[in-house]
Protein 1
Amino acid sequence: MYRLIALVLLAGCVAKSPAPIAGFRDPSTQIYSNAVLDNARLDGRWVQVAEFAAADAPACKPGGAEINQTASGLQIRARLCLNGVPTPFNGALRATGPGRFAAPSGEPWWVIWADVGYRTLVIGTPSGRFGFILNRDGPLPSDRLRAAREVLEWNGYALARLR
């Protein structure tokens, strides 16, 4: 009997504990990029409608991005609010795989969702250090916001930190 109790206690010591959340995403959750993304359809002006931020992050006016298709590939010029900090980006947005880009931030950007009309994009990072939602056409309708939130949650993001 005592051996059984000792074995149960020992098993509890070696059981896998949940991974701590790094940034705004649980790193133990698989993240997926959009496998059928048409990079040419990213061309144009985007408005930031949401970001992930810590509870104590300062307020930050949402930014935006201009993505242009050039002869050498996609170029981005942006000012995005990331964790309450206005952050500029300017340079190549080089495709590294389906829905995956090497961005001027030095951290990979993954398009984890685009609606069928390419009006809304959800961008995440495998590290979970940041994530944001971009939209083209004015306010984000509730159906697309709901879809974006579901995709973020599926990819391990902590929705409580989305603002």
Note: DSSP finds two helices and eight strands in the chain.
Protein 2
Amino acid sequence: MPAHIVLFDLGNVVVDWEPERLYRQRFEDRQAADWFCREICTREWHARHDSGVPMEASIAAKIAEHPEYADHIRAWRGEWLDMFHGYVPGVPALIARLEERRVPLYGLSNIPAEVSEETFDAFPIIRVLRDVVVSGAEGVIKPDRRIYEIALSRMENPDPGAVLFVDDREDNVCAARALGFAAHHFDTASRLEAALEEHALL
């Protein structure tokens, strides 16, 4: 079955998200910022927020462990949007072209529920998507098959092969393919454009 629906990951596909960006503003040098994100507020720690653990409780627990970094830890939530650097180049234009062709567009993102709406408001192209599955609201994250099944249900249960899933992480792409999705491992807008053309979506 040819793909006629596109399901977008958001972080580092549609929007440029990098937590280290925030902490390079807060620390005196890049090495200190990178150390903080590697040892204190790690991606693994943040994944708990993506899976539905309340950010407030998680941040309080982390401050109890590292009180000397309390302000920096609070910034993970309070200065969330400073982790972003606009859109991934070229992708909003592709979304606009797909929308013009009336291709059904959806989102599937590992993102905390508490910050999803402010993120969507900050990047209006996301509002073009008909629906976005927010992992923090669902209590499950990619690459767990359950979140792909939730996405299918929100798209009114098409055959998975009718959906082109776009994600920058190979494990997420492999999980989608295992469930029958068409899938594209994202790295640049130009290669995504070629994939969309290959599927006759553009």
Note: The mean pLDDT is 97.
